[in-house]
Amino acid sequence: MRKKAMTLIETTVYLALFGVAFLLIVEFGLRMSEYQRLSLNRTEIQKAVIVINQEFLSSIDTANSIDATSEFDTNKGNLILNTDSGNVTFGVSNNKLIKTDSTEQINLTSDDQIVSNFIFSEILSDEGEIAGVSIDLTIQYAKNTNVSESLSTIYAL
User: Fold this and answer.
1) Which of 7, 20, 42, 93 has a CA-to-CA distance to 78 between 20 and 30 Å?
2) By three-state DSSP, how is residue 133 classified?
């Protein structure tokens, strides 16, 4: 009885098919890891926006007034809040959002995040006094500026 063997052409075709299948699996794995990394970056930025929003809320809630020397309607200006224990300042330095009070300076964004937009506008009462502030903030991932998150909100005193 004769043994049936594969020809060179059959072997080449099978190896090519297995090679293509292997490359597709590797490509799929690489793309999935890239999407997972982008998703993690976006999640970190979203967490930062939530923390920043809470810092604004708590700081404005304890503030007596908004200092008139704050740099309104200016990108990356300074927001100065007057409190019983001194001033609280929100500002941007080296593309990082920073909160400064009488005792400490806190970075509200990490080194992987860039503040590309930080504009606040005063909201005036009928008497012409500052009654609140409107804040527009955009944070981007430093290594991929396509990953960003924005916050636009109004805080009242």
Assistant:
1) 42
2) strand
User: How many folded domains does the chain comprise?
Assistant: 1
Structural domain includes residue 87 = yes
**Cα dist from 54 to 29, 41, 48, 87, whole Å:** 38, 20, 10, 18
Pick the more confident residue, 46 or 6: 46
Q: How many residues are given for the chain?
A: 157
Which residues does 75 contact at the CB level (< 8 Å), separation at least 6?
Answer: 117, 118, 119
Residue 84 φ then ψ, to 5°: -65, -30
* pLDDT tens for each residue of 107-156: 999 999 999 999 999 998 899 888 889 999 999 998 888 889 999 999 98
Q: Residue 4: is its pLDDT beyond 80?
A: no
User: Range of 47's domain?
Assistant: 8-156
The pair of three-digit structure tokens given for residue 122, joined into one six-digit string: 């005063």
**Token digits for 88?**
């609280």
Q: What are phi and psi of 77, to 5 degrees?
A: -85, -175
β strands within 44-94, DSSP E: 65-66, 79-83, 86-93
Category of 128 on φ-ψ map: left (φ > 0), alpha (ψ -120 to 50) or beta? left
Is 1 a member of any domain? no
Residues 64-89 pLDDT 10s: 999 888 999 999 889 999 999 899 99
